[in-house]
Amino acid sequence: MPNVPSASGLARRDQIRREAARLFAARGFLGVGVDEIGKAVGISGPGLYRHFAGKDAMLADLLVGISERLLEEGRRRAGGSEGPAAALDALIGGHVDFALDDRDLITLHDRELLNLRDEDRRTVRRLQRAYVELWVEVVRQACPPLAAPTAEPVARAAVHAVFGLINSTPHSHGPNPGQGDERAGLTRDAMAALLHDLAHGAFSAAADSVADGNALGNPGAAAPATPADAADAAPATPADAADAAPIADLAGADAADVARA
Hints:
Blueprint: H1 7-27, H2 34-41, H3 55-79, H4 84-101, H5 103-111, H6 118-142, H7 152-167, H8 169-172, H9 188-212, H10 227-233, H11 240-244, H12 247-251, H13 255-260
């Protein structure tokens, strides 16, 4: 029979994940030892090795795991929606929930990606690219001015701007998600509603900018009337490497490291 972890073993593994994420987010991956993680979950440091091969494996499990979860949940939400507008609304809601409810993981994505082993970092990047592409596709379907070929870079930039807006929540929302925030004066639900509205506003602004000709470098001129017109006017396609660089906005990595992935 295969060696399947017991229910208690899975629960302990989840507990280790939570405490490792909390400690890594609070003090940095390099500032936390295995013994400290073990103490936080009530077992000896060496006892952790029954669940994870080491700190590197814990960080990879956290960052690869949340990247997989975001992509799977995003695909589920988009695929189960009735029409592009509903799909975009569902994507925004899912990412807002992630930012508010998994703030330690947001911090790790922002700060600790470069501490992953190369193979694990490439896996995270691949998953992140797929997540970005899902959003770009849905945004262009939901906002007709962004569907023109020449407007694709605007849609992509808007997606990354919205990620930056939502992912900044751990730095602005205060210490107690789900409760009143003394600094911001917002409950968790109020913050979620605000982020949701701001995200929709950003995509609407991007679409309006294209429709007015401003985002395409031609203020006052209307965007091409049809995709065929846009294709005639489109410049040569940029290099694929330029498409990878925006991942840095999502994961907090430098552009050179993105290119190596």
